[in-house]
Every structure is written in C-alpha cells, then in structure tokens.
Design goal:
305 residues, Rossmann fold, GMP Synthetase, Chain A, domain 3, 2 domains, three-stranded mixed sheet, 9 helices
Length: 305
C-alpha cells in the first residue's frame, strides 16, 4: 500500500470486438500475463480482472470477451458477460482495431449502445495498432467514431509494443474515485490460479493449432499439488468434441501435445515464479459446451442473459 494519505481505486471495463487487443492491453498495464492472447479471435471467454498500479491508484481492469453477433449458447453467454462487465466499470474503455478498413455494422451497433451509456459512465476510445495504419486515416477514423459516440477522451496506442499505454493508465488513475485499495499490492488478478493455469495451456493450444482447431476446445486443471520445496505439479485435461480433434492435439506420436505442454510449462513458471511439473491429457467430451458446471466455473450465465 502506498504511503500517500489519499488512495484511488476503481474499475475500468475494457470492451471491443474480438482481436481488438483487449487482453494485450490489460497484460501491458498489469505488467504480467493475466489474460491469454492468441491469433485466433474470441479466445477470452469470461470477465477477467487484472490489477494495475499507478502511483497511489489501484486500477482494476475488467478484460471482457469480444463483442460480436452471437450464434451459439456459449456465444450468447460470452457477449452477455462482456456487457455485464461494461456495466460494472467506473470507466468504460472501448478499444478498436484501427487497421480495419471501415466501421462495420457490429461496430456501429456497439457505438450506439455506448452512446446511450456515455451519459452515466465516462466512455473513452482507444484506437489500437496505430503502427499499422496511415496517420491521415487514423485521424479520420477518430473523428468518425466520435461523431457516433460522445467519447470523453480518445487515445491512440500500440498495445503490443506498449506505445501510449502508460498515458492511458495515467488517465484511468486520475479519473477513478478516491477509495481504499481492494486488493493486496502484489496481486495482479482475482482469477484462481487453477483457472489461470488452464487458460495458459489453452492459449498454447490456440497458438500452435489455431488454423486446425475450432473453438470446440477448453482446458481444465484437474489436480494441483504443491510440494515443500515450492514446486507445483499440475494435471490438466484438454477437452475436445471429436476424435479427429483429439488426434490433431496429440500429433504424431504425441509430439504436438508435448510441445504444447513444454511451452505452457515455461509460461507458468514465469507467471508463478516457481518450478512447474505439468502433465497433459486429451479427452473427447462432446457435450462440454452444454455443461452448467463449465459456465459456473467461469462466471457465465447458461442462458446468456
């Protein structure tokens, strides 16, 4: 806890379309990985709280699933979680992939809904990936979007490179209310470690197989065993829906699964700052997306409301 007599604490909901860079931005602000990043869109499935510090401010970042037109039960639950997360923020930050050629219908629908909220909650625009767009087009985009929604402020950043991220965090710190800190100073997320570990493995599955594996995959930490020397042994199950998907994840002679496990283990050792022993299994669970327990563990509503 800082020495200042006045402390600041509040929440910022980070919303936007899939692959806009929400998770990358949250990880940059927190200074460590709390949300997975993948070239496959729509990999964040629940509301993840990341905790960032700036001087005397504790900024609670709500990383939400991407906003898109839902088709399935899981889709509806994810989009519902995103808007619920938005309603819980003291500030809403709408992050937009500025390299997109135009504002599509889904973007306009989101902006219209944000315009309705903007009178009650400060809403800011964050144009991301600015290193990939012509500056003239960037300012045209900012002007067009501010006409569609009365944003309190507009920021232009590259979340992946970290450019402009500190300015955004500083703004949040100045905008949030005076309040005692909710979390310990060294805490970076409220996500249980078992769930975070499962997410890290799921990230590696997507990073290595995103062109071969659909969204019909999830990961579960089945056992977590800690030892006196500080090591931890994890046993995880990668759930797929079909035998063909299981074969893809395993790879020839189990080679792909071993590579997924090796990369996940290295990430986990960095995050947990301890030696990790990781054992992975692949299981065909064709109805996992209909299992209420899956939705419950991620804080999702089974009816998408």
């Amino acid at each position: 806890m800082p020495d200042q007599t006045t402390t600041i604490c509040g929440s910022v909901a980070i919303i936007g379309a899939p692959n806009a860079g929400k998770s990358t931005l949250v990880n940059q602000m927190v200074g460590s990985k709390v949300s997975i990043v993948s070239p496959k869109v729509q990999t964040t499935r629940n509301r993840i709280l990341g905790i960032a510090l700036y001087e005397n401010a504790q900024v609670i970042l709500i990383d939400t699933p991407g906003l898109f037109a839902p088709q399935t039960r899981l889709d509806r639950a994810m989009v519902s979680a995103a808007w619920t997360g938005a309603s819980e923020g003291d500030v809403i930050a709408y992050i937009f992939d500025s390299k997109k050629k135009s504002i599509n219908a889904n973007d306009r629908q989101t902006l219209a809904r944000l315009a309705e909220i903007a009178g009650d909650i400060p809403v800011v625009l964050i144009l991301n990936k600015i290193d990939l767009i012509d500056k003239t087009r960037l300012f045209e985009l900012a002007t067009e979007m501010n006409k569609l929604c009365p944003f309190k402020d507009t920021f232009m950043i590259s979340a992946e490179k970290g450019d402009g991220v500190k300015d955004v965090l500083k703004y949040f710190a100045k905008t949030l209310p005076e309040s005692e800190w909710i979390f310990d100073e060294d805490q970076t997320t409220d996500m249980p470690m078992r769930l975070l570990a499962a997410e890290i493995t799921r990230e590696q599955v997507f990073n290595q197989l995103y062109q071969e594996i659909p969204y019909a995959i999830t990961c579960e930490t089945e056992t977590w065993e800690e030892f006196d020397n500080g090591d931890v042994r994890l046993q995880q199950i990668i759930h797929v829906e079909k035998d063909q998907q299981k074969a893809i994840v395993l790879g020839k002679g189990g080679e792909r699964l071993r590579e997924i496990g090796s990369r996940a283990r290295k990430e986990l050792e960095i995050i947990f700052d301890r030696k990790v022993h990781l054992k992975l299994f692949v299981r065909v669970t064709d109805k996992w997306k209909d299992d209420p327990l899956y939705y419950a563990q991620w804080g999702l509503s089974t009816d998408g409301k």
